[in-house]
Design a protein that fits this description.
heterodimer; A: alpha/beta; 12 helices; B: abc type-2 transporter like fold; 2 domains; 14 helices; 4 strands
């Protein structure tokens, strides 16, 4: 392994996969450094799961190459398995087995010293807030608990690369907080984490993220730089009836995009100088508004600006 | 490697233990089906409901009727008074068989000119009809011998019987021609096959449905390790099935077991491996348990019918006879019947053992190769 290879945990180049006529993933290039928390963001059907499965070596790409920790995943999928942990959207738990038995089973599949495993089990259960539930059947856990148990099972063999496919979908806020605490701890110890999500607020938590849409990676950078990369500026128009504001300004000159946000409308415009013009249009139509202020773009705004699609928020 | 197989086994047995109804589901169908086969499945035809239209109404005709009654094979349910009523009895199913003793029966019987007797059977159940007809000719034959004068005719030296062949039937291996002796050994194979193929197929497909298979694919476990850990429990269950049905067959129905237990164990091992192979192949072709169920039906039923369990393979069309060559049950039933009733060993049964060995080897290799550690 070269010194450059030692710093790169995951590479994908030109990775494509078709299902019949549908190009689920086309020409994806990624390079993820060791110790990163890398986010893959995109709406349902963007190809996130297909890409994750190919990285994990359970689905073969039609074209392209993938390495994990310097190992060619396509040439030798078995060699990466001890270093890798892949957690699909729904982690496969044995519902007739208890929490402890599930962990034991997955630990045995990967081998390892029993004493070490016991210590790690205790530590992970504690971190997940699940220590009191060791003897409960997995089938009787809540959704969030199941997902945390999945994470514990996925981490029991101390992987160096962790692939999480929408790990927090349907997980309550408390469990989600535990979840992220565990992930941040792992990063401290040098584990590379790649996760996909349709939640834009989670996207803000990663060191870098890729915006994926219709099988392609549209942009890949740090959250801060992605926000800067958004074409135009963002103006927030607070109003009692945001829908009326959207209707009035959607076609106005200088407006690049409109995004409805509960109590306000995010206008993407070519310049902040347009604020006066917009105020005039609203005034002329008699639409009430409280303020028009420049706003720092969020990941969702960037995503919408780049794809024209509105992801789950 | 060994640790992983042990972990799989431990997991399988814990799941089995947690499933409170597992034992009932495994054992009850076996016992029930064995009892049903033992008591209900028989080719013997008794108490056939019969209508008798006696148009002769003579002493001889009444004697013939009493012969029919005496055997217990026929129950006379009606004495219709006309042909129309006789027809109605058969049409409505009141009687399955009908005997018409035509006028002049007694006279014809006495003078050797020929006594007209007509038998009608309801052919909708061809098997019962055929067997009932056989009984009729038997009974009539006995009646003829008993009643006919030594010199047929008026005693004026009419044509004597030229040769007198006396048939001494001695069925080997099943002297009493007890249908149970024929059925029960076959039942062992049939039940073990049904249970092992479906258990194997469903168990693997269930892992696919639950998402646990995807998890196993990303672990370092090899596919041979996984398949071994997954199927060894069903192999043991299959062996338990064979032992249970053999024991119950001997206890309840006194089926003899004159062969070697080791021969049976060897045959059962090869057969169960082949059945597991078929179950695995089924599982690789099914995404859901419903699909596995439909496919299972598609395989198990033809195997059952084309096994020689009830219908002789030699009587099947040639194309189907060829198909039976890939049917493990075909060979196992030969082995079972031979071990139970004939007491012969591998020296005689080696072609069947060889066929089972090849079949199980091919099926296992094919299903392991088809079982990919990928979602493609």
């Amino acid at each position: 392994m070269s010194s450059a290879g030692a710093r790169i945990a995951i590479t994908a180049s030109g990775v494509s996969r078709h299902f019949g006529e549908l190009a689920a993933v086309s020409g994806v290039d990624l390079s993820i450094a060791r110790g990163e928390i890398f986010g893959l963001v995109g709406p349902d059907g963007a190809g996130k799961t297909t890409l994750m499965r190919m990285l994990a070596g359970v689905l073969r790409p039609d074209a392209g190459s993938i390495t994990l920790d310097g190992i060619d995943v396509l040439a030798d999928p078995e060699a990466v398995k001890p270093r890798l942990s892949y957690m699909p959207q729904r982690f496969g738990l044995y519902e007739d087995l208890t929490v402890a038995e599930n962990i034991f089973f997955y630990a045995e599949l990967f081998g390892g010293a029993p004493a070490e495993r016991r210590a790690r089990t205790a530590e992970l259960l504690e971190a997940a807030g699940m220590a009191p539930f060791r003897r409960r059947l997995a089938g009787q856990l809540s959704g969030g608990m199941k997902q945390k148990l999945g994470l514990v099972c996925a981490l029991i063999h101390q992987p160096s690369v962790l692939l999480l496919d929408e790990p927090t979908t349907g997980v309550d806020p408390v469990s989600r907080r535990d979840f992220w605490a565990i992930l941040y701890n792992l990063r401290e110890s040098g584990v590379t984490i790649m996760f996909s999500t349709a939640y834009m607020d989670e996207a803000e938590r990663c060191s870098r993220l890729a915006l994926m849409h219709a099988g392609k990676v549209r942009l890949c950078d740090t959250p801060a730089r992605l926000k800067q990369a958004m074409p135009g500026v963002l103006l927030a128009v607070s109003a009692p009836d945001p829908r009326a504001v959207r209707a009035a300004l959607a076609e106005a000159p200088g407006v690049l995009g409109v995004l409805l946000k509960g109590d306000h409308v995010n206008l993407r415009a070519d310049s902040t100088a347009r604020a006066g013009e917009f105020a005039a249009i609203l005034g002329a139509r008699g639409i009430a508004y409280t303020a028009i202020t420049p706003e720092a773009p969020g990941i969702e705004d960037v995503f919408v600006a780049l794809t024209g699609a509105q992801a789950a928020s | 490697m060994f640790d992983r197989i042990l972990a799989m086994l431990a997991k399988e047995f814990i799941e089995l233990k947690r499933d409170r109804w597992a034992m009932v589901r495994l054992i009850a169908p076996l016992v029930i089906q064995l009892v049903i086969y033992g008591y209900a499945a028989t080719f013997t035809v008794n108490h056939v409901s019969t209508a008798v239209l006696d148009l002769d109404n003579s002493q001889v005709s009444r004697a013939l009727i009493s012969h029919f009654v005496a055997t217990g094979r026929f129950d006379i349910v009606d004495y219709p008074s006309s042909q129309a009523q006789f027809n109605r009895d058969i049409n409505t199913g009141t009687a399955v068989a009908g005997i018409i003793i035509h006028a002049g029966f007694a006279k014809g019987f006495a003078n050797g000119a020929g006594a007209p007797l007509e038998v009608a059977v309801d052919g909708t159940n061809s098997n019962t009809a055929l067997i009932a007809l056989g009984y009729v000719s038997q009974i009539v034959g006995v009646f003829e011998q008993e009643r006919a004068p030594p010199a047929v005719g008026g005693g004026i030296g009419a044509a004597p019987r030229a040769v007198n062949i006396s048939l001494q039937a001695r069925p080997w291996f099943n002297e009493g021609l007890d249908d149970r002796w024929f059925f029960i050994p076959g039942v062992i194979g049939t039940l073990a096959m049904m249970q092992v193929i479906s258990l194997t197929a469903f168990a693997v497909v269930r892992e696919r449905e639950m998402g646990t298979l995807e998890q196993i694919m990303v672990s370092p476990i090899g596919r041979v390790e996984f398949i071994l850990g997954k199927t060894v429990p069903f192999f043991l269950i299959g062996f338990g099935d064979v032992a249970l049905v053999t024991g119950l067959g001997a206890l309840l129905f006194h089926i003899p077991f004159i062969g070697g237990p080791l021969v049976l164990m060897l045959g059962s091992t090869l057969f169960l491996l082949a059945a597991i192979g078929f179950g695995l192949l089924l599982s690789t072709q099914s995404r859901t348990q419903q699909q596995a169920f439909a496919l299972n039906f598609f395989i198990v039923n033809p195997f059952f019918i084309l096994s020689g369990f009830a219908f002789p393979i030699a009587a099947m069309p040639v194309a189907l006879q060829w198909f039976t060559l890939i049917n493990p049950l075909r060979y196992y039933i030969v082995i079972l019947r031979a071990v139970f009733l004939k007491g012969v060993g591998v020296a005689v049964l080696w072609p069947d053992f060889l066929a089972l060995f090849m079949l199980s080897a091919i099926m296992l290799v094919v299903s392991v190769l088809r079982f990919q550690k990928s979602l493609d």
